[in-house]
Amino acid sequence: xxxxxxxxxxxxxxxxxGRLSDFLWRHPHMLLAVLLGxxxxxxxxxxxxxxxxxxxxxFFSIDDFSGLINYEFTLATYGQLLSETNLDIxxxxxxxxxxxxxxxxxxxxxxxxxxARYARGxxxxxxxxxxxxxxxxxYLVKIYAWKLILAKEGILTWFFEKLxxxxxxxxxxxxxxxxxxxxxxxxxxxxxxxxxxxxxxxxLPIQAALERVPTNLIEASSDLGGTPAQTFRYVLFPLAxxxxxxxxxxxxxxxxxxxxxxxxxxxxxxxxxxxxxxQQGTAGNxxxxxxxxxxxxxxxxxxxxxxxRMGAFDAL
Amino acid sequence: MRSEKANSAPLGLKVAAAAxxxxxxxxxxxxxxxxxxxxxxxxxxxxxxxxxxxFAVAWNRPDVWAALTLSVKVASIATAAALVLGTLCAAxxxxxxxxxxxxxxxxxxxxxxxxxxxxxxxxxxxxxMADIPFxxxxxxxxxxxxxxxxxxxxxxxxxxxxxxxxxxxxxxxxADGFQTFRYIILPNIGTALxxxxxxxxxxxxxxxxxxxxxxxxxxxxxxxMLEELIRPRQRPVTNVVAMIVVVxxxxxxxxxxxxxxxxDQIAGAGK
Lengths: 316, 271
Hints:
The structure holds two protein chains of two kinds. Chain A has helices at about 1-5, 15-25, 30-55, 75-80, 85-115, 120-135, 140-150, 155-160, 165-175, 185-200, 200-210, 215-225, 230-255, 260-265, 270-280, 285-310, and strands at about 60, 70. By secondary structure, chain A is an all-alpha fold.
């Protein structure tokens, strides 16, 4: 190989561009450096650098009297993080993320299943766009739409009134925990909006997993006497599970870090994102805010590790 | 081959899928209705009357225009930066073999995989540590960081489809590396880059979480909307702006879809 390259009939190139091109061809490592350099500087130094700087700050503490950051290594901030109020916030957020993920999977599955198995040709494209457009449409507009819907004078109340079911809505709002003065200031409202905003992220991974299930597996199951419920339970569901887990990475992570939805539609009880926001903003306690951000990172790390073991990444 | 029964979905599935799609689309359609309502003070349904006057009111609002211009500028520059960085990264990962390739993919995805609040607060504390004042450029820096992944995903998918022999043939015929890039690679990845750029634009145009941390006094359109959401002052104008935002983000998404629908990976499958 080397001999052929050396006795090549092509003459050496002239001009700066030509020489540069030859140089890069002969030194593939230089080419790699030129290609990778700019993105690595950006992501590796600017982004990872600030991320590490933030995490580092969680080991500092804040002086109670002066309100200044005390640059000495300490675990006191993590001790603060484990106080009862803060653990409450963490538990509340994780529970919300889990229920949102579960509900998203329930709503997304039929859409994904229909799109993967029954939709063909034009319908398939339509289904695809039907999922893509809400997925990409503006986050704030989606929240705004629900503010219109859940408002006391809004469409939902009107709808219940027309059906003479207002008592049902009132009974639901009178419940502890999930209730409240109106839907827009209750956990129920927060939950609905979370599901609405993050559910579309679940559909495409499930659809991708279902598309890989051969039709004859389903047929074989029913030929062998499996009822549709059994086929679903023992054939379809296990095969779709990696897709569901892949989708749940998004719904779980996005719910975990959100601070705008619970602020606009929800009760005054905080979620992790809001706690981070409040600590770094009004409270000016960057170390505690940094310690709070460690929580979703650790939870997502564990979640991703579990998902990888279940083979969810192949479904992404 | 398949029986008739296998080709038609059970009724329950049809209803569940249709209900799910309706759940996804009806709230957005409601935005369009509210842009025309005559009610100013509340979110009353059904609207007491319909009018088109709010479009004129919104048109004459300088703050809306300022926010819109800023958003478009930020999104354009962030997209341009993401296009360059994302393409370079995709070329390196798909065309060469080196130690740590997997790590690079992870690094690119990280800004979007971690909750936005973490990216935002990390950048904000880094800016304040380095004494960088908040400006137009700090917003762009934040946006470009998470836009890279969109371009990268599209470009990597397309690079995989370019056969290596095409590039070798071009080199054998005497083209230098730059000519090969200009005449062989670029025409092949062009539509993927365009699609990636459109998605990056849509992502940046809509971003609010990172922006709240990296913007100083300036407000992009999403920040303007967020303020209206927290303290509603101009409900009719907000309704109109919401509708415009929906239309503005739909166009690039549709464009990206049509540019890449024939490929093995359609743009925008992940956000």
